[in-house]
Amino acid sequence: MARARTWFALTAAVLAGSAVPAVADGAPPPPQVVTSAEATGSSVTIYRAPHGGDGEFDLNWLEGYALITETREVTIPAGRATIRFEGVAAGMLPESAIVTGLPAGVSEKNLDADLLSPRNLYARSFGRPVILRRTHAKTGAVREERAVIRSAPDGSVILQTAAGFEAANCGPLNEELVYPGVPDGLSARPTLSVATESPAPARVRLTLSYLAWGFDWRTSYVLRMRPDGRHADVTAWVTLASSDTTSFPGTMAAVVGGKPNFDEARDGNDREPGDLEFHCFVRPVAPPVELGMAAPPPAVMMEAADIVITAMRREDKASAAPITVQGEDLGDLKLYRMPIPTTVAARAQKQVALFDRKVVTVTPIYSAWIGGGADTDAALMLRTRNRPQDGLGIALPAGRTQVFEPHRGEFVLVGGGTVADKAVGEIVEFGVGRSPQVHVTNEDVADGEAWSDHQVTVTNANPRPIRFEGKAAIKDGARISRLSHPLGRKDGQWLWAVTVPANGRAVLTYRVREPE
Amino acid sequence: MRALMIVVAGAGLIPFGVARAETPAGASDLSVTIYNNNLALVQDIRQIDLGAGRMRQEFPGVSAQIRPETVTLATPGAGIVEQNFDYDLLTPARLLDKAVGQTVELVRTNPATGAETRESAQILANNGGTLVKIGNRIEVLNGYGARIVFASLPPGLRPSPTLSVTLDSTRAGTRPVTLSYLSHGFGWKADYVALFDEKVGKMDVQGWITLTNSSGTTFDNARVLLVAGQVGGDQNQDQNYRNYGPRPVSGNRPGTETSSREALGDFYVYPIAGRTTLANAQQKQVSFLDVKAAPATKGYFFRNDWLNSNDAAQSFDTVLRFSSSRSGGLGDALPAGTVRVYMRDVRGQPQFIGENTIGHTPMGSALALKTGEAFDVKVQPTVASRDRITSDEWIRDEVYRVTVDGGKPRIVEVDRKATYWRTTMTYKITNAKAVAVTAEVVQSGLDRGWWAGDPRVPFESVKGEQRSADERAWQVPVPAGGETTLTVKFDTVY
What we know:
Strand content of chain A: over 45%
Structural class of chain B: mainly beta
Low-confidence stretches of chain B: 1-24, 235-243
Largest interface: A-B, 105 and 118 residues
Helix content of chain A: under 10%
Distance between the termini of chain A: 103 Å
Radius of gyration of chain A: 34 Å
Number of helices of chain A: 2
Largest sheet of chain A: 13 strands, mixed
Oligomer: heterodimer
Mean pLDDT of chain B: 82
Largest sheet of chain B: 9 strands, mixed
Structural class of chain A: mainly beta
Helix content of chain B: under 10%
Shape of chain B: elongated
Number of helices of chain B: 4
Strand content of chain B: over 45%
């Protein structure tokens, strides 16, 4: 022990001799640090995953993003100051940060990602004294010794003790490191700071806005068919989700429809590993031991399945419509805004009604490709036009559809599909699925040199007439003749549009002459 | 325990490199020049008291991603004998390797009682297992039932990569030693914030330089210079790479003006005022451009591939057009980076509407950036018909030969028997917006090489412009809440 004391005295002397390096040309006084702990108000605008799927959310892996705008109040001193922003979204893209409202503007923005982790704590403690706590596995006896870190984390962990140099945790004892404190410059989370220089002290209201990963939103359309089969009540829901660890309470939330260009292939998301591995002389000891220092508190985690419904669901048909979001144009995109402040909670999702329209005119259409290929069941869709006289007339963001039919006083799911972004005035086709009742049979009935005769039969097992549309794929330059029914044209293809009687069939025959 | 903590606090600032045999280098005067391609030139001037004669000088604190072959060192009155860059990292395994032949202390712990016994042992070998000689016995250290305590650390092993130089000094005395080297782990790009006001056709642009240090080392109080360019890269590879990118929207034209910025050869340089600290794992942003109310317009662009039909309408690209020229533009050369575009919503709050990247852009350039896809302006291209035509018709259509910029048509003599096609394309353009728009439709794929050029356009419902041998463009007006169908007939040999 006497030896160790001498050693500490020696290092103290060396320390006094080699003071902090002086800067060559008179360094200005260090800027004062002002910490902004939290936002006083915020708004969160969520954008979809640029090439996202339309399945269920994976709250651990949301690929959309959000524009977060926060107002913060800080008191800035006269002269140079650094303002640190705490409580920002963990998925922040620092290069997108904008700070406005400072009297003298922002001269510099920094994001420090040197995080407080076992590995960084070890690296920053190089050459500094720590306490080595040795625990005997059997007896549980604990002994503490002073030690100095002598290796970098890549070569961990070599310590100098009173006895000499040792590799930690390589002997018969369980050994842990206890640090006397946290070195400067390590933070629990990546922290954004800005440098400013104000002529006078001031209380200012800042706006901080930035893009952040880990958000997404979806639309789902629920169609409840009316008994006549020609009309449906359409309810659209917006579901928004956050996988971030920061909650935004009382925020003005909005979602953006359409496709803004966004670069997914950005780097900087992969950070250094934070753990510190203890290696021994020949083989590494696994698993890495727990360090004596208290770890940062775990992220607030809510039930992954927690769904918050903001809008009131109707209890009966007579009650008020749900609170719906308000749509507006944002350049060539669509912004849908929550009408009231809400909470975008950490690791949670939330639903709010987009609209609720009664009696939308829909036409059931069965369709298939005809003239070649395999026999198939026809696909059923509900076609409407996105305009007020048909009951819609709203910019429809892409999403999933679910179609329900009344059955004994209840609505039962009968199918669903997807719908792309549909502007006002466009034809909208809500997919339902393939129908086992409507079957398409393709037959080649005769052929000769450079010609062939085809027959298409559509059978309908429903007790009602149906509307069928078959698109024929014909080669460039080929000619169709000997048609049993006239064909129309749609999207550059021949189209056979026909009504098939209840429990009946329709037959089309034609000849295709190959190009010479 | 309390007494211990006080000692700890007092000794908490032991500098790097203490207790080394060699002289540690003194305070640094640092300059860092950062290029775009993960590269920086570091110049490190230290005042060092050198003795006379041959000596070894260590430089700890150099970048951990140093390229050692690029190190040069200059100091008056001294020559370099050799320079070494030591990667021999201090790890337990290397420590034991280096201790072969030496005597260490073994501390054994009784598994039941915890009582410790100490004995001296000589390390014989460390090949797959550790052989030690204790007295007259040879043992294999198995499972580490004992702790090994080393008396010292071997001199060659270092906690971090360290540069050491052997110098031959002709005189003693303090003098500047200039160390310069290239290092990976640095990079920078520009980030632009553009707030676009569509109604008045203006945008405010702020430019930020974003620089990153992932070199593993913090550089304090450095002078920082940024060079807008990639140096030392493989030029040919770069050119090939470019061909694979998506075809840009029309309206990009490189400029011919020279910015008043500092230049280095063909590159613009951006010095950062004052000295700044480049902390490890830090991303730093410094403002370099602030332009108010530069003219900008929005347009719609769609390019159709040859013979492409779509079952459903698809969105036009929304394109933001502006200039970097002195008059009517941003008035500066623009280093490569990302442009993020914002617009104010109904309540006046800026909202993000899309981003795109630009390359290094000279002053005077015209830029057209796709910011996203238009929700309300769509197009459905359709091959309405495709039929063979006779050679007589083909010859009759010679008057409809297309030319680029009124130049001569490229007449193709076809020796073999050709098949002539007439393709009718329709492009149904819908506009659900409350204002009329003009949308640009481009049909590509007209140039099929030497055997199949010379296309003719006998009919088009809107007068087109032949942009190149391959592409023809139409500016199609579409009324508010309405639709326009552009119909074009092409006669081709493919």
